[in-house]
Structures are given as C-alpha cells and as structure tokens.
Amino acid sequence: MDKKEKYKVNLVWTACIFLFWEFGAFILDKVLNDPLAEAKLPYPHSIILSITQNFTDLMTASGLTFSRAVMGFTIGALVGFGLAIIMSLSKVAEKIALPYLIVSQMIPVLGLAPIIFTLVKDMDASRIVIAAYITFFPVAINMLSGLNSVDMDKKELLYSYAAKKRSIYYKLMVPFSLPYLFAGLKIAAPMSITASILVDMLGSKGGIGVKLLYSLYSGTKDVFWASVVTSALMGIISYFIVVLFEKIAIPWRRQEAN
C-alpha cells in the first residue's frame, strides 16, 4: 500500500468514526431523549466548535502542560538510556538495579504525585519529575532488551579486531538497540503527557488538567469535552514526534520497509 492509499484509508476511517459518533449522539439526544446526552456523548461538531471558540485558552493551557511533559520526558529518556547502558555493562548492576526499577513502577502515580509536590514544592518541577518517572522505566527496559539481543558472534568479531568496548557500543550495540529504544519512547511519550495532566489536577494554576477539572465542576460540558479532545491530541502528537525522530535516527528501517 503506497502513501496515497494509506492517506485515503485514514481519511475514510476518520470520516466513518465522525459519522458514527454523530449518529450515536443523535440517537441518545433525539431518539432516547436522555437528559444527560450532552454529558455522556456530545455531538462531535459541537466539540470542534467549542475548540475553535476556546482555542487560545486551550492552546495556552496545553502548551504549559506539554512543555513540562517534554522536559520530563527528555530527562527520563536520558536516565533510562544511561541505566540500560550501565546494566548492560555490568550484570551485577543489572541484578541489583532491575528489581528496584520494577518495584518503583508498582507505586501508583496518583499516590506519588502529591509526595513529589510536597518534596519539590513547585508545580512545574512536579510535572517534570513525574513525567521523567513515567518515562525512564519503559526506555530502560526496552533499551536493555535491545542491548542484550545483540548477536554474540558480531561482538566476538569486533573483539577479534581488538575493538575497544566503547567502539563496540558505539558502532554495534547502540545502533542495533535503537528500534528497541524507540519502542520504549513511543510507549512513554503519551504516558508522560497523561502524568503531566494528572499533576495539573493537584492544585496547579494552569495547564490543560486545570481546564478539565474546572470545566467539570462548573458544568461547562462543551469546554470539558474540548479539553478532553485537546489532551488526546497532545498524546497523539507526542507519539508522532517520536515516530518522526525514529525515521531520522534509523533511516535504514524506512528503506527496509520500502
């Protein structure tokens, strides 16, 4: 399937989902006469209208949340990458660190976020720390899997040429592990946005999470759904930014796919 066909398929799917959603909202509102139809399933065209009417506010709020999530995501990705390299270099370090890394993910973000905020006493810093916390684990685990998957024969071949360990990592192991790394990054990117939105709801003065919370309590359902859709778009955009970087960093995979 070429690119034009892919675009056509995506366009058809988008149109079908839109029409199906409109039909479902119509059934709920006009046929079943549900008094909570607007809250349960609003018309998608009304959500688009609300986004255009509140565009500036939504972009300002989402920009604040998104920028902090990106900072946390970057820090978490670097930490995860570094941990994977260390655990790959030393099996002792892997045996010591890996169980604690797994245990760290057992702590629910909803419970951890207030603790982080109490420690750092800054909402922006809390967003960054939580986003980094969410990011580092999938990055570290996926990158470590990639490093451990390198063919031993290839490593021994480089050793036979008296290659130093740094060169082996630079020329073989890290390039081989990049698809694994980006798999982890693609998982972590939307999750870091979600974590940042969650921190917004803990008393922040700005951010898309605040818009969500205030619109929910004030009963402005159109703004609430516009905020929900904007939040979802932020997660989707973050995913495709990682995909773009993957295509730039691993051009040979795109050539293989073609």
From TrEMBL:
PROSITE patterns: ABC_TM1. The chain crosses the membrane at residues 7-28, 66-86, 98-120, 126-147, 168-189, 223-245. It is found in: Cell membrane. GO terms for cellular component: plasma membrane. It is a multi-pass membrane protein. The keyword Flavoprotein does not apply. Keywords: Cell membrane, Membrane, Transmembrane, Transmembrane helix, Transport. GO terms for biological process: transmembrane transport. Residues 62-246 form the ABC transmembrane type-1 domain. Belongs to the binding-protein-dependent transport system permease family. This is Putative aliphatic sulfonates transport permease protein SsuC.
